Amino acid sequence: MKIQGQLFIWLSVFILAVAIVYGYWSMEPVGTTALFLAFGLAIMIGFYLAFTAKRVDVGAQDDKEADVADDAGEIGFFSPHSWQPLALGFGGALAFLGVAVGWWIMYFSAPVLLVGLFGWVFEYYRGESRTQ
């Protein structure tokens, strides 16, 4: 995680330099703004990764002498059977359709989004997966 943080911080420095040069030469506000926003995103990710790397154990990716087998094992918990992302995707598609066609479609997309969001957050609080 330490290496990834350094990569993003150096990427943000590069993007900042490119944004300054591009803004000075082109005098074009949209591309300059996009580059400065890309700088902001890269520095946020780099700061988060560098901040988190100080508080977690050193992983195999940070050890130059590590083998592939050193990083084996359980990585995390991933839901194997959740239908909630489908509801969120459908609700998001309806919401973006509402922006393109008419705002009245938001009245139909908001309940679908809320049901999908609450279902996704609380899916392990009820039913057969309650004990996980």
The residue ranges in which pLDDT falls below 50 over 5 or more consecutive positions are none
Largest sheet: none
Structural class comes to mainly alpha
Radius of gyration: 22 Å
Give the CA-CA distance, first to last residue: 28 Å
Report the total helices. Answer: 4
The percent of residues in helical segments reads 55-70%
Apparent shape: flat
| Mean of pLDDT | 89
Describe, in short, the structure shown:
The chain has 132 residues and is mainly α. Helix content is 63%, strand content 0%. The model has no long low-confidence stretch (mean pLDDT 89).
Task: Label this structure with key terms.
single chain; 132 residues; mainly alpha; 4 helices
3D architecture notes:
It is a single chain. This protein has 132 residues and is mainly α. It is 63% helix and 0% strand. It has four helices and no strands. It is flat, with a radius of gyration of 22 Å.
How are the secondary structure elements laid out?
Blueprint: H1 2-26, H2 29-53, H3 84-100, H4 106-121
Helix pairs in contact: 1-2, 3-4
